[in-house]
Amino acid sequence: MSTIVLSNLHKRFGDFTAVRNTNLTVSTGRFVVLLGPSGCGKTTTLRMIAGLELPTSGHIHIDGEDVTALRARQRDIAFVFQMFALYPHMSVRNNIAFPLKNEGISRREIAARVESAARMLRIESMLDRKTGGLSGGDRQRVALGRAIVRHPKAFLMDEPLGTLDADFRELMCLELRKLHNALNATTVYVTHDQSEAMAMADDVVVMNQGEVLQSASPHEIYHFPATVFVGNFIGSPPMNFLPVDTGVEAGAEQVTLGGAPVPVPRSEASAAKALLGIRPEHIRLDEHGPLRGRVIADEYLGSHQVLVVDTSLGIVRVRVGKDDGRAAGSPVGLSFRKEHTLLYDAASGKLLPGSARQMVVNGNGDGNGKGGAYV
Fold this sequence. Notes:
By secondary structure, this protein is an alpha+beta fold. Helix content is 25%, strand content 31%. The chain has helices at 42-50, 92-102, 107-121, 136-148, 166-183, 194-200, 218-223, 228-233, 355-362, and strands at 4-13, 16-26, 31-35, 57-62, 65-66, 77-80, 154-158, 187-191, 203-208, 211-216, 240-243, 254-257, 260-263, 274-278, 283-285, 291-300, 304-311, 314-321, 331-336, 342-345. A 6-stranded mixed sheet has the order 6-7-8-3-9-10, sandwiched between helices. Helix 2 packs across helix 3 (107-121) and helix 3 (107-121) crosses helix 4. This is Trehalose import ATP-binding protein SugC.
């Protein structure tokens, strides 16, 4: 399998910029997910890697070779589309074998590869059936089989589970990850569904308005979002962002929220206007807490509950135990776990460097010792 490197990749359609100066490395054997809302540039990026779109500027290297100007068929890439793009009049066997026949591979080799892919995807019993009568999930397996038999340098997948129902999509997430592990494949996968991304990816690349905002492991993306957008996009419920009263000074270990002091990890930078970011599970119900509010909703989720609290700083979501709910209208106090608070520049939306970065690099707190997210 192969390493894919994008260097200053830029794509314009007339006056519209779809992808802005993107730099990204997909290492050999990694499962990388491009994640973001509709129109963020993720599919355009994938199509440029595949050779289905040519970049306006920038370069694409696969295994060290500059393939920027090469046609799709010259890149040895397998592309799996959201719509299965199968031939309904042909059998499953012939659909899977079709790209190999076009390459002039011997019948014996084609038969062996088709049988091997069918066993891996557990569709051996369907090989002689027409694809037109198969379920959506089985047709997606056939589409994957057609990609697998080619033994490509990399697999590119554009929302391949988007047409499946929720339960089957969850099952196919696991199947795709198992398949990736079995093949030791280099995979680039596009989705707008954060649950898919967090379940399958080695690395998540969050995009918005044509730009890569953060590329890191699911763990780092969740616990140390690099921007306010990433914190809002990842997590259900998303990260809370609360306005700091007087900004942040470099070296500060305390900020003021609603007139009350709140301890925070030491900041290495200043910001005239700042936001304190914190996940719902890192807020405590505390009658002596610095922030006061009133519960307006209590969402019961079995293993836990999410309280929606109206405060002077806006709505705050708090994750509590399954037996710790509060009735609507109940007054509550809130305190914050210092080691999990993050500070953001309100103007740029970017994370202020400080203790959060040190936790990632040095392996303290929730960073798991994986550095590079904020360098």
